[in-house]
Amino acid sequence: MQHTLIALVENKPGVLNRVASLFRRRNFNIESLNVGRTEKPEISRMTIVVDSEINKASQVEAHLYKLVNVIDVQDLTNQPAVSRDLALIKVQANQDKRAEVANLASIFRGRIVDVAEETVIVEVTGTEDKIESLVELLRPLGIVEMVRTGKVAMMRGNSSGVRYSPGANGNDYYVAEDEV
Description:
Distance between the termini: 30 Å
Number of strands: 11
CATH architecture of the largest domain: 2-Layer Sandwich
Mean pLDDT: 87
Radius of gyration: 19 Å
Shape: elongated
Number of helices: 4
Helix content: 25-40%
CATH topology of the largest domain: Alpha-Beta Plaits
Low-confidence stretches: 176-180
CATH class of the largest domain: Alpha Beta
Largest sheet: 5 strands, antiparallel
CATH superfamily of the largest domain: ACT domain
Number of domains: 2
Oligomer: single chain
């Protein structure tokens, strides 16, 4: 079973390496890992998808909390959440095939973002299943290259789960449960 973990971490050098090393030491395969700054530039958000049993995912969550620069960890696996993946897919498409590629992309609410003499690049955002379905339809046309972001996820509605703010010394952070 795949588990989606969200980790809020301090935006400092070496944090990504420490998190990835934790997964390596515990012999977990990371299915996808996405990292980016949050609305607070000093904090980054990691979306980590791992394939594991529920008790092992809980162990990883507990071990993440032990890392110095980790502020908060949430397991979104069974929570109401919105998740998306972004893919850029370069497809063989001469002038005769471009309309077919554009039609396929539009069915999946994708769009053509680049056109060259023999290829086009399709951009599509959605669930992993949606993107996989488009990839399978484009495969017979000839996929030249593909890149995917991996899953990003966020709790739905008012269920943000945590709030974080600077600690007394201005450098540390504390986490407080939302009053929902």
